[in-house]
Design goal:
The radius of gyration is 20 Å and the shape is elongated. It is about 55% helix and about 15% strand. Helix 3 runs parallel beside helix 4. The protein is α/β, with parallel strands linked by helices and about 210 residues long. Strands 2-1-3-4-5-6 form a six-stranded parallel sheet, with helices on both faces. Helix 1 links the parallel strand 1 and strand 2. The protein folds into two domains: about 140 residues, Rossmann fold; about 60 residues, Orthogonal Bundle (Arc Repressor Mutant, subunit A), CATH 1.10.10.10. The longest helix has 15 residues.
Length: about 210
């Protein structure tokens, strides 16, 4: 019997997963948690085999909770989330996660992933596997931003819209969008907020 802990801040998601997985032979949902802090406590108390961990939750997030649970040896962690940016994938795996699946994955893929992780193997969704392979094949994509890309991102960080950035730099709004897409690709993110945050963390913006 594979004992499961489901961690997600959305009650409907937790309930849906619990119902779905309880119907699978050989699975037992022993507990649920609504945030990372609670997940760490519950994992220590119930010692599940596998923790299904969401990433973005209030308070302690999925990455930190994963690191604490795996460091304590309380369970193996399988990330189950809607997000798949490169930095999130790598952060979760570096924290000790044994797998990374998307919530949109077919039920059979999620079930197979749980069984693989419980057996000491890894489980990656096809989309995530492709992202990791591409990152290894093309490390140059992590290169430093160009001067213009940095300029665009600095204006975005100051709260300017694409239209305002275009006006400030004397370029078209579509050109601003193109620069931002290149920034997103280089930093492995999917939105402006994360691009600014990560660029600051890496010292690309001051």
């Amino acid at each position: 019997m594979i004992r499961l802990l489901i961690v997600d801040d959305h009650p409907v998601v937790r309930t849906g997963l619990a119902v779905m997985l309880s119907d699978e032979p050989g699975f037992e949902v022993v507990a649920e948690a609504s945030d990372g802090e609670q997940a760490v406590r519950v994992a220590a108390a119930t010692r599940p085999d596998v923790v299904l961990m969401d990433l973005r939750m209030p308070g302690v997030g999925g990455v930190e909770a994963t690191a604490r649970i795996t460091a304590a040896g309380d369970a193996k962690v399988l990330i189950l989330t809607t997000y798949e940016t490169d930095d999130q994938i790598l952060a979760a795996i570096e924290a000790g996660a044994s797998g990374y699946l998307l919530k949109a994955a077919p039920q059979a893929e999620i079930v197979a992933g749980i069984r693989s992780v419980a057996a000491g193997q890894s489980a990656l969704s096809p989309q995530v596997a492709v992202r990791l392979v591409e990152r290894m094949r093309h490390p140059e994509r992590e290169s430093v931003l160009t001067a213009r890309e940095t300029e665009v991102l600095r204006l975005v960080a100051a709260g300017n819209s694409n239209k305002q950035v275009a006006s400030s730099l004397g370029i078209g709004e579509s050109t601003v969008k193109t620069h931002l897409l290149k920034v997103f690709e280089k930093l492995g993110v999917a939105d402006r907020t994360r691009a600014v945050t990560l660029a600051m963390e890496r010292g690309l913006l001051r």
